[in-house]
Structure formats: structure tokens, C-alpha cells
Amino acid sequence: MTDNSQPARRVSLRDVAREAGVAPSTVSRALSLPDRVNDETRARIEKIAATLGYAKPSTATDVSRSRAVAVVVSDVTNPFYFGIIRGTQQQLKAAGYSQILVDTEESDQNEDDLLHRLRSSYDGVILSASRLADRALAALAAEIPLVAINRQTTGVASVFIDTPSGVVQAVEHLVSLGHRSIAYVSGPETSWSNESRWRAFAKATSAHAITPTRLGPYSPRQLAGAAAADAAINAGVTAVIAFNDLLAIGMLQRLASRGVRVPEDLSVVGCDDIFGADFCNPPLTTLAAPIEQTGRLAVSMLLARLDPQAAPGARNTATLPTYLTVRGSTGPAPTTKA
């Protein structure tokens, strides 16, 4: 017998927007700030919302506070998030809040559904490396108090880790070693930070009259590094900058199994400086950032929004720097491929 006891999915603001043929942000304004939307549009949206059974999520000021914050990551097994989680946990505990950890498994649909399904369980959200499109993220921020990490979207409070400038540092490092054939090993297509790193890479290489090469996309996991390494070998490049350390570490393993020497034949740069990056053979050159500080700062910004009187004039954005940590995986370009 089929079990039909599970409750139906809650109607979301995006569902109303889809039915009304307008942007989610327009629906949010019509239901929250009706004077900012013309009467005809507002009335149509209100009618559709009522027909669909949409219930506007309660805000932190009109519900009993749960004293909990949802911390959302795209892959809980990725060591990059360990620092984020430690930072948020420490700051939340100090403020008397509990932490709810949500793993979206790299899915934008899971991200949106889980946050709406769990809405009664948390006061606000720390959204790390969101896979939502800009419009969807802005609409979510209009419904739910949140701070995004590693994302820059209009209307969304954020703590941005400046990996694009780190990518530029990595390109300059490789160029100084004589490399003229460099590829960017791309992460997920749905990753906002992946695209920002690619744009920085393309601009930096073009500035040195180097044609930017892009390989991928690949899953941001170690297992995907084998395919990425094979692609780099086939492309004939002398250096690569990988989307993250997991991809780079997987590449190192595959290159070793194929007898490709690093860095003598191919230089490899990662991103994130995760635990274990310096234990690789050779140790991985990578981009480092104050990850735990990022989590703590995101929590401070969110709590200021949940209790604005405690911190009037709280800032909407913050940027933290990255820097290149040079280890053994990068070296002079091979003269035979120069």
C-alpha cells in the first residue's frame, strides 16, 4: 500500500511568482510592501497567492523565537566547510543560539525546499556557497533573514571570500615561473563562485596575452580529479588552477599514477587550503582565506538583523582577502612545452 501520509510541500513564493508570471521579488513586494506595486498587479498576486494557499513565512519579530540558526552547506563532506561550521558554531554558542546544519547535496532544489520545510525551526540562515540563481536567492532573502557566504547578489547580505583576487595572484605566480599555457579546471556550473573565479582567470591570463583555457565542469570532489587530470594532459597545458583543493588533490593522484611529474611536467594550484593540502605529495600550492572568521562574521551580521536595536546600522556586505600559499606543486614551466 502506498503511504500518502506525508504532508504536501508548502507553497513557496516562487510558486506564486511562476503562476503570476512575475519575478519572485515582485511577489515579495506585493505581499510585504504593497504600496511599492501597482494596484492591478498587487491584486492579481494576492488572488493567486490565496488560490494556491500561500502563507507568508513569519519573521523573527512576529513569532516565538527558536534561538536556532540554520547553517546551509552544499556538501558536508567537503573539508572547506569544516572551518565555516566551526566559526558559526562558536559564534552562535556565545550568543545563546543553537546551530541546525543543513546539507543540500549540491542541489538548488534541495536548498529551497529544505529551507521552507524547516522554516518553523530557525530564526535565520547562514547560506554558504548557495546554488540558487540570483533571482531565487534575492526572493529567499526577502522572505527569510539570511546572510550568504561566498556570494554577491543585490539585496542579499553577504560575507565574500575574495578568491577572484587570489586567482589573479595564482596566475601571476605561474607566469613568473614561465608558464604560457595555463588552464582553469572548472567546478559546478551552478556555482556562483566558480564563475567569478573563471572571469578573474580569463582577465588575468588575457592581460599576459595568454589564451584562457577552461576544462570541465567537474564535480567539486576528489574523485572528479582523475578526469580533470586526463583533460589537462590532453590539452597539453603546463599548469592548472583548480576550482577547489579536492579537485586538485584528485588530479595529483591521477597524475602520479600516469607518471606525470608535478611540478616538473605540470604545475597544479588549488583553492581553499583545506586540511591535508600540505600533506599531499607534493604539498599543494593553494589559495588560503580566514575561513573560521568568515563563519563568525556571517553570524554576527545575521544576529544584528534578527535584533537590529542591538546593532543599529549593521553592514550588508563584508569582504575577506585570500592569499596564495606556495608549496611544492608549482615550479618552472618545462622547457620542452614552453
UniProtKB/TrEMBL annotation:
Q: Tell me if Metal-binding is a UniProt keyword of this record.
A: no
Q: What are the coiled-coil residue ranges?
A: none
One Pfam family named in its UniProt record: LacI
**Which keywords fit this entry according to its UniProt record?**
DNA-binding, Transcription, Transcription regulation
All copies of the HTH lacI-type domain together span: 11-65
Q: Which PROSITE patterns match?
A: HTH_LACI_2
One function term, GO molecular function aspect: DNA-binding transcription factor activity
Superkingdom to which the source organism belongs: Bacteria
Query: InterPro entries, alphabetically?
Result: HTH_LacI, LacI/GalR-like_sensor, Lambda_DNA-bd_dom_sf, Peripla_BP_I
This chain belongs to the protein called LacI family transcriptional regulator
